[in-house]
# Entry
Amino acid sequence: MEDTFEPRIVAFLCKWCSSAGSDLAGVSRMEYPSNVTPIQVMCSGSVSPLYIFSALNRGADGVLVSGCHPGDCHYIKGNYYARRRLALAKKLLEHIGLEPERFQMSWVSAAEGQKYTQIIKELVRELKPLGPQTKLRRKV
Amino acid sequence: MVNIQSLKEEARKCLQEGKVKYIIGYEKGADGWKANPAFIKKPEDVEKLIWDPTCFHNLARFLVDEKRRKAKEKQPDTRPVGVVVKGCDSRAVVILLQEKFIERNDVYILGLSCEKAGVVDERKLARKLDGKKPVKIELGEKDNFLVFTDDGKAEIPVREILAERCLECKANFPVISDVLFGEKTKREVLNPFQSIEKMESLAQEDKWNFWKQTLAKCIRCYACRSVCPMCYCDECVSDTINFAVTADTTAEEKAQKIKWLEKSPVLSENIFYNLVRAIHLAGRCIDCGECERACPVNIPLRLLNKKMEKEALKLFGYEAGFDPSQPSLISCFKDEDPQDFIR
Amino acid sequence: MKKTGVFICHCGINIAGTVDVKKVAEELAKHPGVAHAEDYVYMCSDPGQNLIIQAIKEKKLDNIVVACCSPTLHETTFRNTAKAAGMNAFHCEIANIREQCSWVHKEMEKATPKATKITKSAVEKVRTNEALEPLSVPVTRKAMVIGGGIAGIQASLDLATSGFEVILVERSPSIGGHMIQLSETFPTLDCSQCILTPKMVEVSKHPKIKLMTYCEVQEVSGYVGNFKVKILKKPTYVYADKCTLCDECTKVCPIVVPNEFDLGLTGRRAIYIPFPQAIPASYTLDDKNCPDPFTTIACGKCADVCKPKAIDFDMKPQIVEEEVGAIIVATGFDLYDKEKMAEYGYGKIPNVLDGLQFERLCSASGPTRGKILRPSDHKEPKEVVFIQCSGSRDPELHCPYCSKICCMYTVKHAMLYKHHVHDGQAYIFYIDIRSGGKGYEEFVQRAVEEDGVIYLRGKVSRIFEEKDKVKVWGVDTLTGKSVEIEADMVVLAMAMRPSKGAEELAKKLKIAMDKDGFLAEAHPKLRPVESVTSGMFLAGAAQAPKDIPEAVAQASGAASKAVTILSQERLFHAPTVAKVLKNLCTGCGMCVLVCPYDALALKDGKVEVNEVLCEGCGTCSATCLRAAIQVKNLTPLHVHEMIKACLGG
Amino acid sequence: MDKILAKKDLSQWLKKLDSYDIYAPQKDEDQWTFSIVENSDAISLDYPNVVVPSKKVIFPQREFLLEFSQSNEKGYQIKEILPEEKSVIILGLRPCEGKAFSLMDRVFGGELKDPYYLKRREATTLISLSCSTPPSPHCFCLSVEGSPHSKEGLDVLLTDIGEKFYVESITEKGNRLIDQAKQVFHEPTSEERKKVEKIKSDAEKKIKREIKGLNNIPAKLKGMFDSPFWDEESMSCIRCGICTFLCPTCHCFDINDEVETSSPMLGKRVRTWDTCQFPDFTMHSSGHNPRPEKASRLRQRINHKFQYFVEVHQKYQCTGCGRCISLCPVGIDIIKVLEKVRDYGA
# Structure
């Protein structure tokens, strides 16, 4: 399972820091696994818990939300709201028995291509042993 | 001790003086022992009002209907509505005020203190009586309930049949009211989160197996959201069609209704619905426990809401329903909010 | 069904090298609603763009997706291409399959499906987009500059000379900032006041500059091009127009307090003129010290002796309201707090000074008329120890960052000292010497070679007083020996901090600060003089420690940035702002609380968006429990569709 | 055909029927549910009303109608999905639920035939247990042309006569089941015949609740359509779906397309229970909602059961099982409502 299974990960990246950071990773030709499909949002503060639930419901094996470091938010405080809102969502998902690794958050600045690369690598490494996420996935 | 007579008197006065439109209280239900919501319009009807350990309902829920009704009236009667509230219900009123759903002068709050008790848990009671049919329940003198059944009377210690939510209640008397009946006797609550701690101690997989079985039972009758005063949205994000629609709603807007989850009562969609409800009630749920009581298939919904309540307190020092002027849980933050879970 | 066109760029081999672009095109052609899909070697080239325009026209496409590099690079290019083909700009979306795909993966069989997903998700997004036109607002062609130091002065002059009205707000009684306190400046050693005062005079004389000293910005509302500012005019109790500068008042004033201009090395009266060349040249009665806080008696002597009757004790604070189109923040710096450097005896031992105090000692206009005498006994110090990085580069205890100018001004200090005291010896404790800058390294060399300044690499462990000496214990990490110097005076190159009150101001202006409290620029490289809030610009040490030439350069940069706004009749604002679905809104006001820009307000129980204030961050929409407020073209529906596409669902 | 079956032999009989999926009431914490029998000891026939009635077996809350796909090459494609051929037994449902099926037969088997329902109904044999004591304090079957031992809609009716069941086979389907295990069935003795009659008549006496003068109500309702009565009565209604979802006779449904993947487009058309109590039940795409208030929805529920259905099928669409009364979170009592209708304006 571990070596064959390729987790499908959705990453919500804020435009100004994390998406820019992931662009930098590209510009610097860093390499990381291809499991993550990014969705660019304006600010991590705009990520509703529904987005995470929906991604898991649609069969994501893992979800990442990444924004600017506290204090660096392009919109001054959006990431602080994200931090609070998504902490609750994470607790809730773990409460119903979802593996904590399945939903994670990170702060990645526009200068942290290296960190972004690292996070994706770790994310994939952690998700592989878990196998496919079937708990919240819809079966039509 | 709450004096029901003085409640009736106050109610009568309000109605006679035309100070309120009507009064939402409790009356004996058809089956003879449980309370039902009562809508008292005439002074003479105040005699119907009762107060006993079966007054489960969170009557703040009906303020939502009242607002909708008023919105439709041509010349709305702007007098307040009188509403009887327990401690938990009063906190629901606080949330409705905090979220500007109602204004303070829309309601005349008749507060009842639960004092040393609260409401009974029907299921616990049924187990106790096993088969016997209750006809009347009263709060006894010494921390017990007097349960009258078709054959005689039983004295049951409060703790044994009291509803979980009352055992964990943070304020067993109204935090907001225009008149208060009964004493503000703070009941000692050892651990307000007892019920979920067992749950929390489980391994991830056991948690999952528990919820898998439990939520598979959900028939999506939506009694939980229907009975909840906080679920006042005209259109719920989990509804698959939009009906908060007016003449000027464009076809495009209608087409844009998102189908986050399917109507099918299958596990994945049931979980989605319950996750959405739990997260939307975070920092808003005041643990009146009505959702859990109303659920026909016994889903322990408090275990979801209580978890959010606990985290709100633990992570952000936030308690719902005590201060209408405070910003709601997710519309504020502190610089020192925890972020150890963030890479 | 809407017809979508998809255009996949090879970017030479940048994309095609790791992504099978043909395959992506095939896959997308199968995607419902995709009426056209093709790949091309360089989509951004003229032929590439023409091919897009052609396809739009021939296939009557409703919207297009260009799968290429990051939208930060060519989004504008292709949106203009779409416009050229008569399509609304917002019916064009970019799928980033280079930076976020081809450049970070090696195997084609993995990069290709990912590129496909990214492109499909862009297709789903563009299909959900609505056509939008930029919002346009008129511009108030007038600027405000906050802070009257060299940066503020330079910015004001540049703006005024470009023909725009400027309001220069300074909280102290005179402009000039810290630069006016300096004696000489490195590396040229020309006199600071001599080069600054002409600019100060120019400011005071310039017809387009409204100078507002002893004033503070109290409230800022509005948005780029249309800010409304409330300025608090603190009472000076002296009518500048009547005052003849006869100085009679100070002679009779009984109250003496430490003189800020000399950093407490001298005293001044409660009624005073900050320094001889102050602009505006006028006296100020400082009401913190008069009436005497202890006796609470206002003696009134000054008023008695004032022939022109320029003094008015009943002068009241005023609020002045102004409208401006752009704001430049140049609030400068302060030195690191005395208290925090107690370990170096700073503030306790009279002969331990900070850099600015030393500047005053060297300055011809200073307390000692330019003679270097130590404060305790006015003797000439024969041995002086200069300590760099006092408070800088010390993440554990003090400031983590490098204050940048200390290396240079310490060299200057040592040199000036030698020029005054030829038989004296100067020691400098340092971690590194950072002398990047025109003529800087040569300057350092000169100090060592010509003036015999002794550099000791290492940190000072202890400073204490012994008899009339200041003992300095330290280590020379190069020789490994511990050093003990019996100094007559110690000068600390204190760290630079954002000036006091900068944080408060930043909150009023709604501009971000970095972790050290300096004002944050919009982009560290590409937008170094813009704040994150459009229409507000940064200049000088308020943004980061910097020396005079840098401050001046940034000031001119900020000014020209401001001109890009002021020079326009109307401004255009991105139309991807929040919209309210009135049927769903219950008026709970949660979104109003979270909006960083005060762009939302409740009206008749529903929320309303001030579109020009809204920056489209979407925090409101994630807060709303009923999705009643959404950002145009990035609504929950957009995200929902993108999620589905990303997961092949 | 009447028989006797010793209770201890029930499991034997069921063994013989292992080709069937057997649904029977089984206890799960405080509640009973109809679920497939894994081992016959789990069956508990002495139970109060099962919360979710056995209608869920023949009229499932969710069922597939067809699957569809769409691609740029093949265009749209559709394939019907019919219920799988599988014989089913529902054991131990109450007579009122059997009656409920007979009512639903009129809906799904009328001039418009519903293949999904009918196929399942055909494949299902109903073995009911008559109520010697009312399974709910709110039973009122006698008032709505039912009885604790009604055979309507059933194939077999069991009556508990102590150590044994008195077995009455009503249909061919019923006979077939009994024939599969002849040896465990015996001819009833005349005592046993008397005993069962006695038990049945006693059972009727034990039913506490009733509505008098129900026959005038349909006409009365007709006249009360626009009456403010409904506003009054619905004040406490919270517009949840309990009363209708859990009513053995309620059969309204909604149809949705559940899309599996959108590229290529693939999905199923799904039928799920719906209820007149939900505000979106009557929502028109125009935005017009003919039943915007809960008053009109409570009225609909009562009118459908006691006026419209009567007009079309000459039957009340109610079996008196009492679920809607005992499960309503705010204690709305259909009997009280009907009595008030009866006495309204009198």
User: Anything to note?
Assistant: Chain D has a mean pLDDT of 93. The two ends of chain D are 49 Å apart (CA to CA).
